[in-house]
Amino acid sequence: MEIPNWLKRKDSKIEKLEEKVNELQRELFNRPNLEEKVKDLETRLKRIESLYIEPKRYPQTITLKNEALLITDADLDGLVSAVLLNWAGWKFNPLFLKYGLTEILNRVEEASMVIIADFTYYDDTHKGIEKLLQKGINILYFDHHLDTEIYTSKIKKNDRFKLVYNNDNCWTAKIIYDFLKPDSKIKHPKVAEEYVNMAGITDGKIKGLSEEGEIVRKARLLQGAICAGRNYHFCSYVYQKLLDNSFLKDRLIWEMAMSYNPSIEKYAPQF
């Protein structure tokens, strides 16, 4: 199957950096025991990409009159988080971002609310958050990373900022699921629960399941596809397939996932 133009790389410098990130992610995907060994290298690569790659793909200013902006991590945990909010009836414009959160926050000129999901709150994120609060923009922040709890403590008390946080072996989709469940009816509850568990598998929070199990295979399929085609357009594409629960029948998702992790080819349907 021919890869669509919007998945093709055009900038050689970006391509080389992303190849390094993908190579690293592939090693982690197949050998989880390497996680600690490569953690520092991965962090350095993220810092490089945050400065060079992601901000180039988005407009210099983001203006949404009377509309909400959702900024979520471009992995399965982040995409499932967006699906859950959508299925709970929330209205927003999704932006799937891997790196460069602070710079994107600095570009928001107007929005009824900015929802942030599954992003570590670093020290420099504080400046972007403060600018939004000064503009009178409400912020709702869902996360599970330890640094987020540490750095958000610097924010002066402000009714416009709300942090929903859990670092107790939790992941963002689960945090959002628990946040929504008491007060709203989430569409497709059984599928929603399965999605949450798939995100927990790929985020390393749910362990000990058989690699041959259906839910693990679904999780590996989606995460492999996202890692292979990690950009805004492809994440938006996967997001739509998650919304209508059609990803298992989608040829492009299978093609991308197999390019990243050939071992799943044996599970692929006949197209």
CATH class: Alpha Beta
Oligomer: single chain
Radius of gyration over all CA atoms, rounded: 18 Å
How do the strands of the widest beta sheet line up side by side? 3-2-5-6-7
Q: How would you classify the helix and strand content by structural class? A: alpha/beta
CATH A-level architecture: Alpha-Beta Complex
Descriptive notes:
- The protein has 271 residues and is α/β, with parallel strands linked by helices.
- The chain has a single domain, classed as inorganic pyrophosphatase (n-terminal core) (Alpha-Beta Complex), CATH 3.90.1640.
- It has helices spanning 12-30, 35-52, 76-87, 101-107, 125-134, 146-152, 172-180, 189-202, 214-228, 232-243, 251-260; strands spanning 62-63, 68-73, 93-97, 108-110, 113-117, 138-143, 161-165.
- The strands form 2 sheets. It has a 5-stranded parallel beta sheet, sandwiched between helices. It has a two-stranded parallel sheet with strand order 1-4.
- Strand 5 (113-117), helix 5 and strand 6 (138-143) form a beta-alpha-beta unit.
- The chain is globular.
- The model has no long low-confidence stretch (mean pLDDT 84).
